[in-house]
Design goal:
mainly alpha, 3 strands, globular
């Protein structure tokens, strides 16, 4: 399975975030909350996904596992996407938009994600 593409989460649309959204050239994207509050739903989903995808990665692709499929987890414990996204964006975007992204992630990959080490961001 390949990493989820943004258009898979934004109704088949590829969205370029405007400069007001935040600096998309940084290794870890941090959206501007004031912009995010007034953005369209698809821009909100795109920005939240970009934020999340620059910090976490799919466990089934990146986390080693044994022959029985058990993950060999090191120091960084897996996170739950719904909790992380709700904590960061729950007070910023409408619940329906947040839930739509969470549901898409759960449907496509699941709710458990691995923390992405900073050294992977440049590769």
């Amino acid at each position: 399975m390949a990493m989820i593409a943004t258009d898979e989460l934004t109704d088949g649309q590829l969205i370029d975030l405007p400069p007001a959204a935040g600096d998309v050239t940084q290794p870890r994207f941090e959206p501007v909350d004031d912009w995010l509050r007034s953005a369209t739903e698809v821009e909100q989903k795109t920005a939240m996904w970009r934020w999340f995808a620059t910090r976490y990665e799919e466990m089934n692709i990146t986390t080693p596992h044994d022959d029985e499929g058990n993950y060999l987890i090191g120091e960084k414990k897996p996170v739950k996407a719904d909790q992380v996204l709700a904590e960061r964006f729950g007070a910023v975007v409408p619940e329906t938009v947040l839930q739509a992204l969470i549901n898409d992630l759960k449907d496509k990959v699941g709710n458990r994600w691995a923390v992405m080490p900073m050294d992977k961001l440049g590769s």
